[in-house]
Amino acid sequence: MEYKIKMAFALIGIGLIFFINTINAQKIDKTNLFEIWHLNSYKIKSKEYSPSKKEKNDYIHFKEDGTFVSKSENTIETGTWILNNNGGYILMIDDNNETIKAYIVSLSFENLILRFDVAEIKEVEVVYNSHL
C-alpha cells in the first residue's frame, strides 16, 4: 500500500513538472497586442478598483510598426515598444528616451493585464480591455 502511495505522488510530481514546463514554454502572440487597450480597472491582492475620473479615457495603443501611443490622465505619450517573450514583458521607450517595463500577467483578444515595473505600483495589476 505504501508503495502505491509513493508511486502516486511521484506520478503527480512528474505531471506537475510537465504542466509547468508546458505553460512556461508558451509564447505570447505579438499580434494579439496590436490593439487599442482601454484602462478598465486596477487589481490589488485580487480586489478590483475603478480608475479615477481623470483616468477614465486612458489607453495604450500598441501599433504593428513597433510604436505606441498612450493617454494617461489626459497626457499623450508616444514612443516605441518591444515584446520580450522570454521575460514576458513589454518594454516601452518614450520620445524622451525614458523606459518602462510592463510584465504581461494575462493576454487574450479582449483583455490585457499588466504589472508595471515601477516601485510605487509594483503590486498593482492594471486591467485593460480592447473594447469599451
Automatic annotation (TrEMBL):
Superkingdom of this protein's organism: Bacteria
Ranges of residues in domain Lipocalin-like: 37-113
InterPro entries linked: Lipocalin-like
Protein name: Lipocalin-like domain-containing protein
Protein species of origin: Aquimarina algiphila
